[in-house]
Amino acid sequence: MAESPLDLLVIGAGPGGYVAAIRAAQLGFSVAVVDKRAQLGGTCLNIGCIPSKVLLNSSHKFVEARDHLKQHGIFMDGVRLHLDTMMSRKNAIVDELTRGIGFLFRKNGIIFIQGQAKLESNNQVAIILPDGTVDHKQARHILIATGSDPVLPTGFNIDDPRIFTSTGALSLDTVPRHLMIIGAGYIGLELGSLWARLGALVTVVEFLDHIVPSMDQETAKFLQQSLQKQGLLFKFQRKLTQIIKKEKELVVHLMVADDTSAHLPELITCDAVLFAMGRRPYTQDLGLEQVGITTDDHGFIKVNSQFETSCPGIYAIGDVIPGPMLAHKAEEEGVAVAEILAGQAGSVNYGAIPAVIYTSPEVASVGKTEEQLKAEGINYSIGKFPFSANGRAVVMGETAGFVKILADIKTDRVLGVHIIGSDAGSLIAEATLAMEFDASSEDIARTCHAHPTYSEAMKEAAWSAFSKPLHV
Ligand SMILES: Cc1cc2nc3c(=O)[nH]c(=O)nc-3n(C[C@H](O)[C@H](O)[C@H](O)COP(=O)(O)OP(=O)(O)OC[C@H]3O[C@@H](n4cnc5c(N)ncnc54)[C@H](O)[C@@H]3O)c2cc1C
User: Fold this and answer.
1) pLDDT tens, 405-457?
2) How far apart are CA 405 and CA 414, in angstroms?
3) Which of 50, 261, 343, 383 is 20 to 30 A from 222, comparing alpha carbons?
4) Are 9 and 143 in contact (CB under 8 A)?
5) Can 451 be counted among the known catalytic residues?
């Protein structure tokens, strides 16, 4: 007897795909998820968010123990790094969390199939199983959540173990003496911080004249200065033209960006190069053409407001469609698409998606930057409060940074919040909730915040947006 079709077949078990699968199963769908990897969790859990944050945390503790605890009267002699142990802990955490998704799949009756999926029609997918045999699965709805992979500079490959992308940078077995990072986006800065903390000299090369282009520029400047104080070197308006591979070193050739004259390149010697120039949607061998799915100029799958592609019955979410390439954006879309398929009103508020950079200090933002508001001709007020005037930050010795709230000058509605400082990533949740509910800065200011907490800086910045702060 032929197998009855599934309600939903999801391709990709990253944060978009696995969350969509769980929500659809909760809503009564029969669901299967296919992924090439044996481990669930996609890029995020295996080679992205989680391993990077584990290592950032470990390296932060190393620097704390080596350089900062003495201020507390705690003297630790002979602090040393055992990179193998650090990497083993990272691997164990990745294993634990990916197994956690397996548990959630079993709990919700979701079938997991390891294999490479290829679209055959709007209701059938071929799956090449690890033993090379091919299975065919039918489903009423198909969801593409195949994510993204790193962009490599044109003409360059990762054909030498000393040249790698973020995946390689999360599994090095020694600390490079000099790590050259191509790209000053959030992945380059996080991984640069990580290896600088562990002892590498880190040079970050960027085509533009500033770091993280999407970030509020005042905040970006503060972050750049903080990273420079930690020893990171920046080379702006430079482009990589060549890497000469010598036995003991790599010689990187840099040219001034946009310089077409025949100037000699600047040569920098290093022993490792990390390409961190961003990510691109991953749709290789997926069979998009076969079923008539169209993509935009950057390769992102085009979808309508219901996440449906140009092939009816096939949907797409996450890094493979336009929008910020972030795990929580993919998750929101996963929930929304499952609810839409179940006849509910799933939706995502793209105006309130936070973004965090896990450097030290951390940076977190939601909504518009000053640059965007200016470009859109929106008049705004600015409320800013430094962590140096926040009691908890002083107690913790983490006074670098500020909270900056941008509010509509007429209505006081919060339009954007930018935080740089300790635990900014947690603090941004309040701002995101405020924006989700169209709150004004006065709403935040008049909400009672516990003392002493970092969150009081948010309250004070809100006071300063519509009136005056109390504590400066
Ligand atoms: C170093 C690094 C750090 C990051 N840190 C953060 C962070 O701190 N916070 C954050 O929000 N985001 C972070 N990201 C981004 C985040 O990982 C992605 O936005 C997120 O994983 C996207 O989820 P997704 O479900 O769209 O796709 P993915 O997580 O990429 O999952 C896609 C899955 O699809 C599978 N697949 C692809 N094609 C096929 C096929 N044909 N058949 C079967 N399976 C297939 C892949 O094997 C993969 O497992 C980071 C990324 C990197 C690289």
Assistant:
1) 999 999 999 999 999 999 999 999 999 999 999 999 999 999 999 999 999 99
2) 7
3) 50
4) yes
5) yes
Output the domain CATH number for residue 332. Answer: 3.50.50.60
The candidate with the shortest Cα–Cα distance to 148, out of 47, 54, 240, is 47
Tens of pLDDT, residues 68-110: 999 999 999 999 999 999 999 999 999 999 999 999 999 999 9
Name the domain count of the chain.
3
Let me know whether 309 and 294 are in one domain.
yes
Task: Please check whether residues 258 and 320 belong to one and the same domain.
Answer: no
Peptide bond into 361 cis (omega under 30): yes
Tell whether omega for the bond before 452 is within 30 degrees of 0, i.e. cis: yes
User: Is 91 a domain residue?
Assistant: yes
Q: What is the pLDDT of residue 260?
A: 67
Give 122-131's long-range contacts (Cβ < 8 A, gap of 24+).
122/291, 122/311, 122/312, 122/313, 122/314, 123/5, 123/313, 125/9, 125/11, 125/34, 126/287, 127/34, 130/38
Query: Could you tell me which residues come within 8 angstroms of residue 170 by beta carbon, excluding any fewer than 6 positions away?
Result: 47, 51, 52, 55, 90, 191
Rounded to whole angstroms, the Cα distance separating 252 from 242 reads 6
Which atom from ligand 1 is nearest to the alpha carbon of 16?
A: 25
Co-location of 393 and 294 in the same domain: no
DSSP state of 231: T
- Cβ(469)–Cβ(461) under 8 Å? yes
- The answer, yes or no, to whether any atom of ligand 1 lies below 6 A from the CB of 48, is yes
Q: Are 269 and 250 in contact (CB under 8 A)?
A: yes
In the chain, the largest separation of any two C-alpha atoms, in whole Å, equals 75
Report DSSP letters for 43-61, one per residue. HHHHHSHHHHHHHHHHHHH
* Whether residue 11 has its Cβ less than 6 Å from ligand 1: yes
Q: Which of 9, 143, 146, 359 should be mutated for ligand 1, with most atoms under 8 A from CB?
A: 146
Q: Is residue 101 part of a domain?
A: yes
